[in-house]
């Protein structure tokens, strides 16, 4: 048994049954993010895209390590400001309301990502009312196609994001009439869950080329390219992740050769920073076979953890054996078979892993889903069916003793 498993078992013993919890390893998070940021070459900056996980202890842990936060709603602007009144905040997202834009400006966000020509006009108008100049990046939806298959595409195809590359001449004409916005550069966030280091570099190269081309063509003095996030997590094989050292060594070359000297390349990663620090742990409530398929029914489900259904994948897990058995009758057990892990919801879609081979599983054992620190609790429909929420623990080692802080839900 590894150290992690011991901690989970102890938490289970100390807390209510049946056990169901999100557990976050803050020491791991700190190491991981520090490693990533410290290897970045000069003239590049890392922001954390907080929609991946905006729990307060996660934000507090990350804030001192990254350059700033990327936010996509006024709620996220407020969360950023609660954690750090000074940290740079960049504000994006389609469909910003006037109230949100005004509050963001008053909250001193450092950049607004402009997603349409109408939004550009509105920001100009609102900034004029406040008598300020707002620094912006134009979010451009490039024509594509992009290198290889990532899981999600935000650009290079019809989506609600950014300004169609074909509209650049119109935006430039509009910008010429603006007095209260300052164009600092361009924002591109085109794909998500990209796992290939070299293809990601090629994508960044395309971004830099495009920005240089527009800067020349329209005589712009810009200084920033935001390359978005989109660095992936390999959920199919946890031992083979995006290799950061390879990526940064290629990145260093790319910046040296292609990025104009006064420019900065920004990253706003979500998944890659927080996924690996999280575990979603569920106790097995029942084992049953139905029409030839073996089901493990656990405390919890996709209302806590929607990622596997939203991606239609089997989420990786380990089984943590629990020795206690409180009933006077025999404990049900399966050996060397394939199981499908489902939750407590009354819908056949409540599946977190399908037909996965296991050596042994008993009622009362724990299923530990790994890499659940990003887009897991945060994207789930928590109150569907009104089951209880899972506990949330944030673990940290202090003087060789680990402490679990439990979040109390408001
Ligand atoms: C979601 C999002 C990110 C973060 O994406 P990851 O795939 O989690 O790295 C970055 N930028 C924008 C604009 C986003 O919408």
Note down, in words, how this protein is organized.
This protein has helices at about 5-15, 25-40, 55-60, 75-85, 100-105, 115-130, 170-175, 195-220, 245-260, 270-275, 305-310; strands at about 20-25, 45-50, 70, 90, 110-115, 135-140, 150-155, 165, 180-185, 190, 225, 265-270, 280-290, 295-300, 315-320, 335-340, 350-360, 365-370, 390-400, 400-405. Helices cover about 30% and strands about 30% of the residues. The strands form three sheets. Strands 1, 13, 14, 15, 16, 17, 18, 19 and 20 form a nine-stranded mixed β-sheet that branches. An eight-stranded parallel barrel has the order 2-3-4-5-6-9-11-12. It has a two-stranded antiparallel ribbon with strand order 7-10. It contains eleven helices and 20 strands. The model has no long low-confidence stretch (mean pLDDT about 95). β5, α6 and β6 (about 135-140) form a beta-alpha-beta unit. α2 (about 25-40) packs parallel to α3, α5 (about 100-105) packs across α6 and α8 (about 195-220) runs parallel beside α9. The relative contact order is 0.16. The protein is of the alpha/beta class and about 400 residues long. It folds into two domains: about 5-25 and about 275-410, Beta Barrel (Lyase, Ornithine Decarboxylase, Chain A, domain 1), CATH 2.40.37.10; about 40-270, Alanine racemase (TIM Barrel, Alpha-Beta Barrel). The structure holds pyridoxal-5'-phosphate (PLP). One of its GO terms (biological process) is lysine biosynthetic process via diaminopimelate. Belongs to the Orn/Lys/Arg decarboxylase class-II family. Pfam families: Orn_Arg_deC_N (PF02784), Orn_DAP_Arg_deC (PF00278).
